[in-house]
Amino acid sequence: xxxxxxxxxxxxxxxxxxxxxxxxxxxxxxxxxxxxxxxxxxxxxxxxxxxxxxxxxxxxxxxxxxxxxxxxxxxxxxxxxxxxxxxxxxxxxxxxxxxxxxxxxxxxxxxxxxxxxxxxxxxxxxxxxxxxxxxxxxxxxxxxxxxxxxxxxxxxxxxxxxxxxxxxxxxxxxxxxxxxxxxxxxxxxxxxxxxxxxxxxxxxxxxxxxxxxx
Length: 214
Known about the structure:
The longest helix is centred in the first third of the chain and has 13 residues, at about 65-75. By secondary structure, the protein is α/β, with parallel strands linked by helices.
């Protein structure tokens, strides 16, 4: 960053929300309905925060995508919201330090807002960009740029925290400092290979680094 840190933006799934197992369970119910086998190896091989990439890799026909989305969300509604270790305390610490916070996620607004409410985190974020809010998805920089524009802060004074290579690629394309945290999804090697500006072991370490940079 070329200026003092003013804003921190987060990914949701795998960064603040521990949703990996819930996602697997929903996929494992969904794909067999379309005659597609889905096991742990398939999850590791095809996982992406852009689930349409997963659909494509598994051969789910395009005409089924809307119905599949609805079914997945139906299954996921029964899953409880679980925070990643230190997520609530970390977000509160950054907010109390005077940093402005935003959320940029590929998740649907209905689901993400329900989970944010369940963890009492929504009040800390002044902007929440979800799937469909921009035409392009991660790793395109459009979602992150939309959040920064809403907040009125520059890329050079912002950081983005995420657990996937797509998060790093989006941040880099937007000119935002990228912090990578290995999460519960099967993409740790790819995250490291994406070479974030800062790679830390956990959310507490990311929060400490952000407070120091402020």
